[in-house]
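Session log. Operator J.P. requested a structure for one protein chain; no other inputs attached. Running the standard single-chain path with token output.
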Amino acid sequence: MWRKHWRIWRLTLVILILLTNIYLSGCQSDKLSAVVIPASGTIESSGKPEIASEDEVRMPQSLDEPKVISPEQTTEPSPQTKPETFPDPKNEANLSGPVPEKSPPNTPIHPYYGLDGTPPSAPGLAMRKRVFNKEPERMAYLTFDDGPYPETTPRILKILQDEGVKATFFVLGRQVERYPDLLKAEYEQGQGIGNHSYSHDYSSVYRSPEAFSSEIKRAEDVIFKTIGVRPRILRAPGGTQGHFHVNYYNMLDAANYLVYDWNVSSGDAAAPLVPADQLIQNIETQVPGKSRVVILMHDAGVKTTTVDALPRIVNYLKQKGYSFGVITEKVAPVLFPGGFNS
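Structure written below.
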């Protein structure tokens, strides 16, 4: 009798042992399926498995399941590691409309803005259509580069005030740093303020479009610190002719800057000191036949004869029926054709 009961208990014990082993095997399998390999490629030796985070690699449960790869293992660089390009985000906020596509290689060169806002055209050029203000039949824009200087700027401002006319000063960042009160005086008098780079050093300014951008931004920061304004108008040192190509224009247009050359020159840069009579003669020779004139002069310590000639220049233009204006981004630029060569 006892043998019969022993066989029953032994069978029951074997069944329990088998069930226990099956149960334990199932638990072990579940734990193993959650084990991960860290991004370092080594398995941690701790006895407790961990759940994979976003920067770890989970082993696939089957051949069809893709691996979860850490951001560091992707070939696409993260936004933080991408090199900065021009324009930067704060300038992008100032864009007035979509940036156009570049013109095809066979586009004819048309290096002028239309007064209706039609942009220039050239191979590879991408400049947007703009909206410019209507102008009187005859319009004159007096412009002064390179200042401010204590020897000349106050005298120029006094003449402009006495004559009841306005002008535009394309200032250098380094000069504004030296004489911030003179820039404030120009701005408070209602004169136009433009950017003429920081240093005027050709070897620095024209090393590349990016170097030009750096010079403009440095000068812009100085101007903003002084009068709280970031000019959108600028003049290239020496003008765009022989210095610019289409990449410069594309870069500036994308950042919503406008560059201004000139169509009448006083000639005061031909020598350290050009006689006032010669300056006036230069202007009287170039103005006839032009409905709008952008006149180049210089506000520099040695250019005293430019200041001497200024009242007579203004009087000549008044006699010819010209109105006087301040250059803003709403004024159609005068541009040299040579700057649009690739």
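Operator note: The two ends are 111 Å apart (CA to CA).
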